[in-house]
Structure prediction request, 149 residues.
Amino acid sequence: MKILVLVDGSKWSQKAALHAFSVAKGNNAKVVLFSVLDRKEVRAIAFHLSLRSENLEEMKRFEETVWGEMKKSVKEVITNLLELGRKEGINCSFRIVEGSARDKILEEANSGKYDLIVMGAYGKSGKTRIGSLLEDVVGFIEPPVVIVR
Prediction:
């Protein structure tokens, strides 16, 4: 059995990973932690930061700063989850890709490599309703999906 866990750095995706570890442990399964770095999201954040600073010329600098911080944050979360999983005796690995979150998630989830997809109910924004990315992808994922709250 092979489990794909969607990791965006939120506490919800970390809870999803812990749930996947529990399932994996009981089924001798492999877990793949998967994260997508989306430049569109970074550009939107950089644009809002440059508006706040009232200096649109700073947008490129803000974008590179946000991009670097986002990569660093995701790598830290995944490193911590890998360490935890391996301490529990779970066979786990990771993939970090760049592109459209929706497109890359659907591509990976539907690649035929996975028996189960696990994701958090909410994303980094912590909105009180199920996240829009979840709504965008869950109906198009072919393997079974577990949504962790």
Q: What stands out?
A: The radius of gyration is 16 Å. Residues 126-130 have pLDDT under 50 and may be disordered. The first strand starts at residue 2 and ends at 6. DSSP finds five helices and five strands in the chain.
